[in-house]
Q: What sequence folds into this?
């Protein structure tokens, strides 16, 4: 029983939180429209949490993701508005997305290169880049929002996929996941199968009951699935875990630890750029103040999801659950009209509690 509680801690906490929020909001939380909006709200933090899982798995941390996301959004806004590419339709939208992703990747490249070369702890390096990126965003935007953006670009953050296509995508994804879980030679994980079935039902209920699947949700799902596959089924995934478990032993065993760390921060920057572009598209404007404290939400989601802060143990699935837990709390508190100041206090308590539980459980083991 103790092992089961430890293994499925994040899932149990999320289920209890969802039930409690549904009760205190008198069922408003469970409306199809609200669940769809919740999914859309979770996507930004979810995309950042995917990259942050890799970073923390290597024993590092990245405090710059929020500022990098803001900078990437500003670059996308400049391409759309200042350069006039909002009038170029799809090609202008693709160019703005590519510019945002490239901006994030460049920031991640700087983080990775300096961390690997200088051997300074990632906390200090990413803290410095956090300040730099925010300053550059303010300089480029002159402290003002850049808006409005083009409709084709905004589709990335505001668009929906039709109900028929949504149903096909959800059912096919669920069937593939269930087949993989139940055909596993190491043993069938019936809990994972049950969670997959429940998530499929919830997705069909919310998406089919409103306007279809939000485009950011599909993007988040694709990135999470790709990250999960890399971590669980590739040599690089094993290297990432090994580099976080014991860097010295991994290096002596032939693992390219420095290359892994550089790649991880580059990927984190790329995902931050994508998240910034999606956020700007959702808001129909790029703001230099966007992304404030996004790094804390991402770290909280990863730790709540069971990833060890010292590295070497964790999963993408757990981080996704953690992101939905943070999103559920934010959504529930908004439905209850709880002041934003109190929301910050509550999220801070959650982060401390998650770290305490992680440390306590590791000490016992």
A:
């Amino acid at each position: 029983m103790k092992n089961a509680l430890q293994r499925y801690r994040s899932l149990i906490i999320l289920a209890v939180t969802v039930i409690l929020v549904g009760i205190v909001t008198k069922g408003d939380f469970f409306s199809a429209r609200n669940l769809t909006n919740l999914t859309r709200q979770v996507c930004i933090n979810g995309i950042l949490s995917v990259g942050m899982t890799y970073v923390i798995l290597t024993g590092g941390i990245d405090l710059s993701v929020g500022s990098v996301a803001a900078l990437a959004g500003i670059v996308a806004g400049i391409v759309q508005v200042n350069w006039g590419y909002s009038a170029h339709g799809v090609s202008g939208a693709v160019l703005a997305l590519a510019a945002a992703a490239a901006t994030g990747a460049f920031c991640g490249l700087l983080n990775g290169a300096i961390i690997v070369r200088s051997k300074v702890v990632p906390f200090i390096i990413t803290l410095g880049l956090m300040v730099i990126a925010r300053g550059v965003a303010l300089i480029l935007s002159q402290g003002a929002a850049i808006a409005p953006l083009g409709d084709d670009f905004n589709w990335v953050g505001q668009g929906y996929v039709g109900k028929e296509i949504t149903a096909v995508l959800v059912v096919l994804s669920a069937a593939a996941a269930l087949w993989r879980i139940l055909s596993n030679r190491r043993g069938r994980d019936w809990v994972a199968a049950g969670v997959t079935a429940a998530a499929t039902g919830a997705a069909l209920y919310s998406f089919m009951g409103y306007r279809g699947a939000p485009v950011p949700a599909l993007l988040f799902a694709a990135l999470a699935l790709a990250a999960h596959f890399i971590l669980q089924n590739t040599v690089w995934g094993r290297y990432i875990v090994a580099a976080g478990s014991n860097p010295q032993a991994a290096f002596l065993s032939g693992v390219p630890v420095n290359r892994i760390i550089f790649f991880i921060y580059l990927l984190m920057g790329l995902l931050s750029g994508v998240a910034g572009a999606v956020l700007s598209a959702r808001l129909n404007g790029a703001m230099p103040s966007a992304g404030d404290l996004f790094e804390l939400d991402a770290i909280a989601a990863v730790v709540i999801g069971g990833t060890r802060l010292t590295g070497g143990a964790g999963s993408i699935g757990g981080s996704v659950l953690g992101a939905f837990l943070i999103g559920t709390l934010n959504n529930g508190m908004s439905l209850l009209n709880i002041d934003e100041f109190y929301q910050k206090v509550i999220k801070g308590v959650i982060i401390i509690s998650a770290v305490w539980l992680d440390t306590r459980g590791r000490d016992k083991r």
About this structure: Residues 89-118 form the longest helix (30 residues).
